User: What shape does this take?
Amino acid sequence: MNSTPKQDTAPGGSAAGRAPLVFKVLTLNMHKGFSFLNRRLVLHELREAVRDAGAEIVFLQEVVGAHEGHAARHALWPKTPHYEFLADQIWRDFAYGRNAVYPKGHHGNALLSKFPIVSHRNHDISGDDRDERRGLLHCVVDLPGPAPRLHTICVHLGLFASQRRRQLGLLCGLVESGVPDDAPLVIAGDFNDWRMEVHRTMRCEGLKEVFVATCGAAARSFPARWPLLRLDRIYIRNLGICDHAVLALRPWSHLSDHAGLLAEIAA
Assistant: This one.
């Protein structure tokens, strides 16, 4: 990646005469800290890879908050929730949205940020589906200098088209009611949208997807070792795109069933 903004996607929200603030965002479905097919615990290797990516803000899906069974079976299972373990002294702030709760623990979405998180709220979008709990983690981040506060929404949509259509409506409703029109916004995560139906019906005003805007197509991110399906996305509003990358090579290809997406953006 380089830090030279592309001319056709220059920052749209920067105040006149002010140099844009450039920062990186990473999104990853971390598969609860296990490798493809759950063959081994890779959480420690994953932490190093996420650190090496150098992102200021990290969107995570399938993050384990607690699991008594795994903690008893794996000697290297951390004593803290996975989002705290990953954030360890690198990302000063973090927020967690608990979605799925079961007898031995729970998991959900998380945001790690090197900038202060001034507020956060998890919105349950599961509806009547008791077997597949989903949420939208909405955070407000205080960016350095005169840049306006950044809104972020960490997304993990359902496996079935009918679920995704309903959840997309709730997502756009959250943007309309909870995010000011002129605020910088990043929506990132696992949309489970291999047919691009959600993308084509996205009606959140002013959003653009980073890879679609610059490459003409969403990134292939699943399965991580041989990415074929375009499941993961990074949408932005009132921000500029500087660069982007699909993290599908080693070590990333062996750290989850999804490849990570990295974008450098300007506010």
DSSP finds six helices and twelve strands in the chain. The first strand starts at residue 22 and ends at 29.
